[in-house]
Design goal:
six-stranded mixed beta sheet
Length: 161
């Protein structure tokens, strides 16, 4: 089991990854709970494409005018990904969609890391418990998402050591 804690957009964020014989558990929490559980799986023959090597820097702005923190671009989740809700759900359709995005992106990072280390492609169960925002702020949600995915990458690097 490997854990990591960081402040992401002024919120304490904790990640935990545990590998089991048949699947991998990845917990992403800002509230100290397991949260909504979603299983992500893909067929073993589905191709995984690594991220492009383009980077966004804080002194450049994207087309939507939002400055991005330095980060390597993320790989696109494969179209054949299957998301299965296991326990709980987001309180709204918008939050459910956000949780699906987190689960599919995090699982893609886990699978790419496993392939890079000669591991097999197991289903990934992602637990997501994010702090509720009083007002929806797309720019902050985007920064939080990128911060969490950077943490997932760091967690996977630590785990493979």
């Amino acid at each position: 089991m490997t854990q990591l804690a960081r402040i992401v957009e002024d919120v304490q964020t904790e990640l935990l990854i545990q590998t089991f014989a048949d699947r991998i558990l990845l917990l992403i929490t800002q509230v100290g709970k397991v949260g909504n559980l979603i299983q992500a799986s893909i067929p073993p023959t589905a191709p995984l494409l690594p991220a492009s090597h383009a980077t966004a820097t804080s002194d450049s702005e994207r087309a939507d005018g939002i400055s991005a923190e330095p980060t390597q671009s993320l790989p696109s989740p494969p179209p054949s990904i299957q998301l299965t809700p296991l326990l709980g759900s987001g309180p709204s359709e918008q939050i459910q969609t956000l949780h699906s995005l987190y689960a599919s992106q995090a699982a893609t990072l886990v699978w790419l890391s496993a392939e890079g280390h000669g591991g097999e492609r197991k289903p990934v169960v992602v637990g997501i418990a994010l702090m509720k925002a009083h007002v929806w702020d797309e720019a902050k949600e985007r920064k939080t998402f990128l911060g969490v995915m950077n943490m997932v990458g760091e967690l996977l690097t630590r785990q493979s050591r």
